[in-house]
Specification:
- The structure holds 2 protein chains of 2 kinds.
- By secondary structure, chain A is α+β, with helices and mostly antiparallel strands.
- In chain A, 49% of the residues lie in helices and 15% in strands.
- Chain B has a domain of 173 residues.
- In chain B, 60% of the residues lie in helices and 2% in strands.
- Classes of the chains: A alpha+beta, B mainly alpha.
Chain lengths: 742, 488
């Protein structure tokens, strides 16, 4: 480290230290407003009555607004913080609904510039000021934490850039590598283009995933659960078992940003940027390992990064699970290629399975349906290359990979399977019976200019569900060159990739006989669980971009330098043009939402409600207190997420039931006071499948209810933990051995 | 004769080159003038005021008053010419005196602007980079740029477009005076470019001149060592003094009126800034014409430099960062570095994320300076000029070293012209709100129906009333006009 670098580092550390101290300052109470102190302003068109509080000033920072209210059935309050005169978007926050029986609510607002005249407004539905309780506003330390994080990342980025520059100037980073880094950075920035605004545009599923992030954050904060199984604030506080069926591991990152204090939309945008960057790096590195040619790897990586279907998943659908899974599919391709193509006695042969393990684990943690598709195509590849698969070492490595994936991810798939087997959940019954009609027309594949689109079906205003004009034309060019014998004999991997691309593309169309396959027992589950065949565009995109890379490689190996250069330049320009067009189209056709306050979305954006108990619907739920049978008296009721503490007294000679406002998922535990007959969770559930606790006759004391999970959950977590520990021990031991050898 | 002016060659001396250059310049002008060749004019926020201004100058000329300081609007008088000079308006006013219709006169004026902008940009950038091809590419990128098309065709901000014409002169002049290597000094007087540039700016759009002045000061500070050497400072001084002298006829009445009656704006401007997406947006033909509103990109104006120009900036910045120019001290390199930094900073300043409101609250002076800017996108003119300079430098650099990248750059320039600018122009030409205006009293649209833009609902139309004595009630004039109309 040079002297200048040391000085710079010292200054950076000092600044960070100063900012870190501010992160721990306590909350300060800014304002207390009694409901009675608010002035009735006017009756609005929708029948609500608007009340307004006195004005107050706010300094820049993050504020928490708490409201205590007396809202009963058929009543509602809409609370909002407004300001009259302020700088541009100085106050960033949205209003929040307070629902019937919701005694306490809290939400955040973000102030970026000093505001002199902020005020609270409450729109009351079905009542007057008696609904209002008290409003308290607190200034939190979240603003300081956000500032610290931003400054930390800026310093890190600056230091990395300076280090990179120094190494480049010293010649330690080749010019080709510099161009690769630059190109990938531009590709990432281009693919994040629609989010370079100060507003947000929702995709079809975005709100569901934003709520997952928010509830994950609340569960980590309130209940300290890890791994999270039931996310607490969903569905009017009843909880939702989404984490069992939908891996949350990668959502920990945006949840952590929320914990730090970033607004939900900012956290999501940062998450999207991180996923794009990770995709670029993973795809390039995976391709580079296989083709061993920087130009070809860069070509394939950029075509994949700017693929229309990928961008469609990000912006049109907001399909977080699917685009996360697409990030890791190249790893699986890399692992399979290296295991099948390299010689088994090569030095690093036993390390190649880790690409498979890492890729498949990440895909499993991201999206279950993508895992199905990946496993399906891995099976096809194994069938196609069966001679190689059945080499002793290869077979052992593949088995080890499967075993490692199973062991390391046991904590996710075993509980999921157990819950699915119960048949109690709606997800068991939501499989579409006829998915063939939802496939795409062939004409969509040759839609050269990928518009943002507004519809999944048909051609007019169609979404960009395709592998991309560049990838399509490369396939056609290859066909023409091969037919005219302009290029030599095709390598096996190129043929295989071509076959897989064509197969997955055809399977995504409405011409593939999905409905017929659905009639075959055993195949039906896989044929219908996909929900729509267009999901197969994900593997099609991966295969086509890999085909493009290997095509360039073949041209270079045949010494067709000019043709390789021409193909590289032309098709890359085409891919960038199409990508630029698509992101421009998405930007100009997306509705702008100035959305900052996560609580504004409510708690019931569950989509189809796949993880509810079968027979219920989200509209059945509402905020309510525990419901006790006659003879049962309760008091001191406290609910913190999915943890409940309540004092009950059963004065009758028989056992009585108490229904608590939690969905009756398997795994809840009720713990009473020691020395008394224990209360327990009933096997039957209460109204709209609420959790039912049986209070023994004569019981008097505190009961604590919390989600612990069935025993099988604990076993699966233990298996995964032990596997991970053994893995770390083995890596440490191998590392030590390698050091000793050196 | 013009070709023989010392140091100034209008066209290359070689015949073949001359034909190629002429052809390209004509093509660029033709493409830029397509909206003016449709037989009608589109509506624009500022078009009405501009056309009225021309009418007043025309009336003044026909009444024997060649240069009017006070427009006789409604008998009350309106001192538009004092505060908003545009000497080039006289061209159109003279055409009106000769009987040319409002539409035709406006179109001829716009075509004239396009011709001059194309030629000036080619000349200046070609001289800087010593290459006709680079000059032509820069000219195409500059003349057919999205901000320029937006201002000319959508907003009707003719003064700003007139001012844009002179910016390359400033770049060329400052380059010759401050940055060019001593041994490469050309024949001729580089300060003449500065005179033409500054004079043109003062007498077309004062706000652009103020911005230019700030930029000049900053560049001088950056090149302070060079500034005080024997040749640079006198050249610069000559340029500034000559420009001041030539503009005295306008500046003195302006300053006098401001000191007596001036009302300076303190309006907040941050909300008028652009989105990052808007600045880098390339395919404006996709988007609607847009009016400023709070609906994000759906309602955004086509007012950004585009991704390709920004990409040129990024490429240069990456090369600079990786040390490609460590051992190079050519004037072009220094110009490109300055243009890169200034271009990037100015682009950031056009965004709504830039803390204009906070800067405005610092003190009274900053409040006035920011308020007078009216909208951050006023800085886009200079941002565009700097970005085109950087792009031109990249072409020049690769042309001499790596032909492959040079041709990629040419391809990108053609791409941005065709798919960015031309697609925007096509969508604007085929869009709504167009009209043929013969004179103020009678007007109709192409198809005979009432025009959708009612700028001539009455003969007088004030924009924001900024050029009016403090304390005047704006409504008086309108009430007077309504009375008059009723009587008729």
């Amino acid at each position: 480290m040079t002297k200048h670098e040391k000085i710079l580092l010292t200054i950076e550390c000092l600044i960070l230290l100063l900012l870190l101290v501010r992160c721990f300052r306590p909350e300060t109470h800014v304002l207390s407003l009694e409901g009675g102190a608010m002035t009735e302003m006017m009756e609005q068109e929708d029948g609500s009555i608007l009340y307004e509080g006195e004005s107050f000033s706010l300094k820049p920072g993050v504020y928490r607004v708490e409201m205590r209210s007396n809202v009963r059935d058929e009543q509602k309050i809409y609370v909002e913080i407004n300001c009259e005169r302020s700088g541009y978007q100085a106050l960033r926050g949205n209003g929040v609904n307070v629902y019937p029986n919701q005694k306490y609510s809290s939400f955040e607002i973000f102030v970026t510039d000093k505001i002199e005249d902020a005020y609270v407004t409450c729109a009351l539905y079905g009542g007057r000021e008696e609904l209002l309780g008290q409003i308290d506003i607190y200034r939190t330390a979240a603003g300081s934490r956000v500032l610290f994080t931003i400054v930390l990342f800026c310093f890190l980025a600056f230091d990395i850039l300076m280090k990179f520059r120094r190494r480049a100037l010293l010649g330690k980073i080749s010019r080709k590598t510099q161009i690769v880094c630059f190109s990938l950075a531009v590709g990432v920035l281009l693919s994040c283009f629609p989010y370079f605004t100060d507003y947000f545009s929702f995709g079809a599923d975005t709100i569901f995933h934003l709520q997952r992030i928010e509830c994950l954050k609340n569960t980590l904060l309130l209940n300290f659960d890890f791994p999270v199984r039931v996310q607490n604030t969903w569905i009017y506080g009843h909880g939702y078992m989404v984490s069992v069926f939908y891996g949350d591991l990668f959502l920990m990152f945006p949840a952590l940003l929320r914990l730090i204090g970033f607004p939900i939309v900012t956290a999501y945008k940062i998450f999207v940027f991180a996923v794009m960057a990770l995709t670029a790096v993973i795809t390039y590195v995976s391709l580079q390992r296989c083709v061993k040619n920087e130009k070809a790897a860069l070509f394939g990586a950029l075509i994949y990064l700017l693929a229309p279907y990928r961008l469609y998943n990000f912006y049109n659908r907001g399909a977080v699970g699917e685009y996360l899974a697409m990030t890791f599919m190249p790893l699986v391709c890399c692992g399979m290629y290296l295991l099948l193509s390299e010689e088994t006695d090569s030095e690093h042969y036993k390390n190649y399975k880790w690409y498979m393990v890492g890729g498949m684990s990440a895909i499993l943690q991201s999206h279950l349906l993508s895992t199905e598709m990946t496993a399906f195509f891995v099976a096809i590849v194994c069938l196609a290359a069966w001679r190689r698969v059945f080499r002793k070492e290869t077979f052992i490595q593949l088995l080890q990979a499967v075993g490692l994936v199973a062991a390391l991810n046991c904590w996710l798939w075993l509980p999921m399977l157990c819950m699915l087997r119960t048949g109690e959940f709606m997800v068991s019954n939501v499989f579409e019976s006829q998915i063939q009609q939802i496939g795409i027309w062939f004409a969509r594949l040759v839609q050269w200019v990928p518009n943002s689109g507004t519809t999944h079906l048909g051609i007019k205003s169609a979404d960009a569900i395709q592998i991309g004009v560049a990838a399509t034309l490369i396939l056609m060019l290859y066909g023409v060159l091969r037919w005219k014998k302009e290029i030599g004999k095709t390598k096996r991997e190129l043929l295989l990739l071509l076959g897989l691309t064509l197969l997955s593309v055809v399977m995504s169309t409405k011409y593939f006989p999905w409905d017929m396959l659905a009639q075959i027992p055993g195949v039906r589950f896989f044929a219908t669980s996909l929900q729509f065949p267009t999901r197969l565009m994900a593997p099609a995109t991966v295969f086509s971009s890999w085909f493009a890379a290997f095509f360039i490689l073949q041209l270079e190996e045949e010494k067709r330098e000019q043709l390789a250069k021409g193909v590289f330049a032309f098709f890359l320009a085409l891919a960038v043009f199409a990508g630029m067009y698509q992101v421009n189209s998405i930007s100009s056709r997306s509705v702008a939402s100035y959305f900052y306050t996560a609580e504004n979305t409510g708690t019931i954006s569950v989509g189809n409600g796949e993880y509810l108990i079968d027979g219920t619907w989200v509209r059945d739920y509402f905020y309510h207190d525990p419901v006790a049978e006659d003879g049962l008296v309760w008091s001191d009721y406290e609910k913190k997420g999915t943890d409940i503490s309540i004092i009950v007294r059963n004065t009758t000679p028989t056992d009585k039931c108490l229904d608590v406002p939690l969905i009756g998922y398997p795994g809840y535990m009720a713990v009473g006071e020691s020395g008394l007959k224990e209360p327990y969770i009933a096997s039957e559930r209460g109204e709209h499948e609420d959790l039912r606790v049986v209070i023994p006759a004569g019981y008097e004391g505190t009961i604590s209810i919390s989600y612990e999970g069935p025993l099988i959950f604990k076993v699966s977590e233990l298996i995964s933990a032990v596997s991970l520990c053994l893995l770390f021990v083995r890596m440490a031991w191998k590392g030590r051995k390698a050091c000793q050898k050196k | 004769m013009l070709q023989k002016i010392k140091g100034f060659h209008l066209f290359p001396s070689d015949d073949r080159n001359k034909k190629q250059v002429l052809f390209c310049l004509t093509l660029i002008t033709f493409l830029a003038s397509l909206p003016q060749l449709c037989g009608y004019i589109g509506s624009g926020e500022k078009l009405a005021r501009y056309l009225q201004h021309i009418e007043m100058i025309k009336e003044g000329i026909t009444n024997g008053q060649f240069y009017i300081l006070m427009e006789p609007m409604q008998g009350a008088g309106y001192a538009d010419t004092v505060f908003c000079c545009n000497i080039l308006f006289f061209v159109q006013a003279l055409l009106r005196v000769l009987g040319v219709s409002v539409t035709a006169g406006y179109s001829i004026y716009c075509i004239m602007l396009n011709v001059l902008t194309t030629w000036i940009a080619w000349y200046c950038f070609g001289k800087i980079f010593q290459s006709n091809s680079v000059g032509l590419v820069c000219s195409a990128l500059y003349t057919l740029s999205i901000p320029r098309i937006y201002r000319l065709v959508v907003a009707g901000a003719v003064e700003e477009v007139s001012a844009l014409m002179f910016l390359p002169f400033i770049v060329y002049g400052l380059y010759c005076v401050l940055l060019e290597e001593q041994e490469k000094k050309r024949n001729g007087a580089p300060w003449v470019s500065l005179v033409v540039g500054y004079t043109g700016l003062i007498q077309t759009h004062l706000l652009t001149y103020e911005i230019t002045l700030c930029i000049t000061v900053l560049i001088c500070l950056l090149c302070v060592r060079k500034l005080f050497c024997r040749s640079a400072f006198p050249q610069l001084l000559k340029g500034i003094c000559a420009a001041a002298g030539l503009s005295m006829w306008y500046c003195i009445p302006l300053v006098d009126s401001y000191l007596r009656n001036g009302r300076l704006s303190h309006d907040a401007i941050q909300g008028n800034g652009l989105f990052i997406t808007q600045v880098l947006y390339q395919f404006w033909g996709l988007a609607s014409k847009g009016v400023k509103g709070d609906s994000g990109m759906m309602a955004a104006n086509p007012d950004g430099v585009g991704f390709v120009l920004f990409f040129g900036l990024v490429v240069f910045a990456a090369m600079w960062f990786q040390g490609y120019f460590l051992s190079q001290e050519e004037g072009c390199v220094r110009l490109a570095k300055i243009s890169c930094v200034f271009g990037f900073v100015l682009l950031c300043m056009t965004l709504r994320n830039f803390p204009w409101d906070r800067i405005q609250r610092l003190n009274c002076l900053s409040s006035v300076l920011v308020g007078e800017l009216k909208s951050p996108d006023r800085l886009l003119g200079w941002a565009l000029t700097f970005l085109v300079t950087v792009f031109g430098f990249c072409l020049w650099y690769f042309r001499n070293r790596e032909g492959y990248f040079y041709w990629i750059g040419i391809g990108l320039a053609i791409f941005t012209v065709i798919f960015g600018s031309m697609s925007l122009m096509e969508s604007l030409i085929t869009g709504e709100s167009s009209g043929i205006v013969y004179d103020l009293e009678a007007w109709r649209t192409v198809d005979g129906a009432e025009a959708s833009f009612c700028i001539f609902d009455g003969p007088w139309y004030w924009v924001t009333g900024e050029i009016i004595t403090v304390g005047t009630v704006l409504g008086i004039g309108i009430r007077w006009w309504r009375k008059r109309r009723k009587k008729a």
